[in-house]
């Protein structure tokens, strides 16, 4: 047990150690975009910073945190040490090596291509190699999650896999499917070009492959929050989970509806017919099902807890909830941000409405609200919940934790709401400086300043998070409290095999992926050979000629 | 629960629910996306079903040859900025370049600083620019009797060498300094029309800012830095582009832009950049 804990702790520490500087970069970028003076006012530094911020937040923080959370869940929910500890540490080392490679490449200015790569932009092979190692290394975690669940099922025939383990395995499988896109793009297109084995780059194919990853990765990030919603929140509230089956269905639907939908990021790309874009837009909307199912389940579970605690009347259960628990406060704040961000998402995923906001600051504001807000605040709550369990030391100051959560919530609201509006006014994304003296752009100035203030609040909150975790880590040792998961109102004695494993759903997903992506990817191999010369971001230093 | 085994046994409850709902979703979205909605266009007639399906797939239903005659393909240059080209230029030897450059001094001046206002200064010019122009002269994509003759006599490696040699000479064109634009005139509301044209362009006519490619403050691969070049030479080249006499700009950008400018504007831009005018130096101060 001790080793599993240390494994989880190491992963989480890497995640949070990278998180803090990445937030600092984000706050600086906000200042840089605003009319206010920013230190180091330089466009090249801005794009390097955006790349580093994106790579750190999207690949490093999330992957390490989710792996750590997965190991903790596997060890605690199955009630036994993880099998394959050696492999897990090897995976950790590979991911860490990849992270270092990527970060060094970005810091040396050789990889300002943003974390989504954007071929035909071309970065240093060190960056692509680092990203490849980080993502490929996490496949060891995927294999271990599946292996541990399968081993438990073999030894406990007929018994339902605990919901937390079922959900984290769904997360692992989702990530394996999602990562296939980016790994194929890196290994098949970008790395060969970066090594100089080919002269041209198939930008269309590369972007299509990445779209396989691009939306599913968001659900990969989201899943720990949902695992917490279903298994930790009802427990922290002192109640029970409304329905175990609903939880299983939710995670199965997330697996199905997060993958054949990535092309809604490519509505503006000319390579595909309108039919496939509509098909994937349509499937994207189905994610509303598990989302609304979850909102219903969580509210029902919380109502059970509130009534157990003495809440009366139609809404009396709400004030009766233990709001001083970080987990309960976080879920409340998270659902507010999820609601707002979700409505924004409906616009992004609509084939027609998307054209209003495509490539504007609205999109960046949207994913910051829904990922940086609704999801990351749950990461904090999970960390506060797990820390005492894996370190054996109590959380130092729940009050400070609540302050940190509130700061993060307000910081994110203040940052993203004006950011959305600036996007609606037409402010493009991925731009370092704006000429605010221009009458067309001037009205966006105050909005961006408000966003920059929000960025500062987020930075304070991030510092506070690290302070709380370090203080708890070095606090006095207390009695050990195991991580407990919520019991369902009617705990399942048996569940149908289809809801206890993923064979059926992987088969259905394979068919959906072939339908949604078979032709759009296949066409590049026989109809559209659109290779173009790469635009080397690294070129500025060397082959520009001598002067 | 024995009735519920195997993902492909449709008589089981969950597999049948899963497969049937997946099939229903795919069917509905296919019918909507490929047949029903694909028929309608915002500004065009409603399409027949076959054309609509082809449109939805992303191919054209019309498989016959295009009706209009296609103009013959004309390439403006043989140079493409692939890494092979850049590697070729980077391999240039300055030593051999100095030997080749003995042919150039008579017109372009000793060490590449041209004494004549109609002949460009080469010292300090980007090696890629010199290399491309030599290749264009060699292939007849750019026409100037003397240069066509000289370039034909040079090998590809000679061109790279001499380009490297001139790029390395001092005292010619000033080096491009810094990334940022000069504070003066980065906005469309700049009062001096020439400075506005150079640093902000003229969106109304589709003219991008000169400085975005030719400096000061920015640089595009293959575009010469103009600061310090002879004004008369710049103006003559602009006129040649405008009249279609010179057409070795890869994307036809210089022909398009120069034709949009009036004669006075071409003159003013040339004087602003030119070695004689010194306006750029004044603006930077």
Model description:
The complex is a heterodimer of chains A (547) and B (285). Chain A has 547 residues and is an all-alpha fold. Chain A has a single domain (2-531), classed as Cytochrome c oxidase-like, subunit I domain (Cytochrome C Oxidase, Chain A, Up-down Bundle), CATH 1.20.210. Chain A has 15 helices and four strands. Chain A has helices at residues 2-33, 43-77, 85-107, 125-155, 163-194, 203-237, 244-257, 274-285, 288-308, 326-349, 354-357, 361-391, 398-424, 444-473, 503-526; strands at 121-122, 200-202, 531-533, 535-536. In chain A, the strands form two sheets. Chain A has a two-stranded parallel ribbon. In chain A, helix 1 runs antiparallel to helix 14 (444-473) and helix 6 packs antiparallel against helix 7 (244-257). The N and C termini of chain A lie far apart (63 Å). Mean pLDDT of chain A is 91; it is low at 539-547. Chain B has 285 residues and is mostly helical. Chain B folds into three domains: 15-57, no CATH class; 83-167, Orthogonal Bundle (Cytochrome Bc1 Complex, Chain D, domain 2); 193-284, Orthogonal Bundle (Cytochrome Bc1 Complex, Chain D, domain 2), CATH 1.10.760.10. Chain B starts with 12 loop residues before the first helix and ends with a helix. Classes of the chains: A mainly alpha (547), B mainly alpha (285). Chains A and B meet through helix 8 and helix 15 of A and helix 1, helix 2, helix 3, helix 6 and helix 8 of B.
